[in-house]
Amino acid sequence: MKLIVGLGNPGTKYARNRHNVGFMAVERIAERYRFGPWRKKFSSLAADGEIGGHKVLLLKPETYMNDSGRAVAEAARFHKLGEDDVLVIHDEIDLAPAKLKTKTGGGNAGHNGLRSITSHIGNDYGRVRIGVGHPGSKELVHGWVLRDFAKADAEWLEPLLDAITDAASRLAAGDQARFLTDVARKLQEADELDAAAPKAAPAPEIKRAAQHPAGERQSKRQSALAANLKRWLAGQKKPD
After folding, report:
1. Is residue 111 annotated as part of the catalytic site, yes or no?
2. Cβ count within 10 A of residue 181
3. pLDDT band for position 240 (50/70/90)?
4. Of 19, 79, 111, 134, which is the active-site residue?
5. Domain ranges, ordered by start, for the chain
6. pLDDT at 237 exceeding the cut of 60
7. What letter does residue 63 receive in the DSSP assignment?
8. Among the four residues 24, 77, 81, 168, which has the most C-beta atoms within 10 Å?
9. At a CB cut-off of 8 Å and minimum separation 6, what does 10 contact?
């Protein structure tokens, strides 16, 4: 079994935050591969299913980011999983938006969720790092990751999440290199389809509809009445 953990904070308040991109990824995977319903388990919301013939447990810790390791450790202990069976999908401020990288082990780059997981299960687990960009100053990082993605970010975020989902069988098999290759290919295909798609034609000029004959007769009668009234009034004027 593979334990794939999406990092984020629970609750609608945080749902579209940059820090919650891990939640977004596992939610899309669960939907695409028709996993079972999300259930409260291991201090998390958990969903079971299969991807490419591999059993997978998806996890969204409800412990808040800074204590994610407690939830991951509960699930890993219950299923007797080692570090190499665990894969964490998370936001990465040291990568430009839309960039994607994977690695096993290594530093946590100040990410509190990763730091917590490492303190509970060790450091040699896999990571899928989704770039969300850096605000430019260390003092701004906290507010940056706890802010919603901008509307314009959807142009790269949605295709990237779709590509990650399409290539999820590689993650279930533990093949990070081919996962990255598949994601890159999916994104290229999406770009080519977008470029080949016919552009929307300009909106046609709206022409005034021809007036119904009855309406036209009514309009003529009103004009004639107005003209007759004007002539009558002119005839009533007294000479100077």
Report:
1. no
2. 13
3. very low
4. 19
5. 2-196
6. no
7. S
8. 168
9. 45, 60, 61, 62, 64
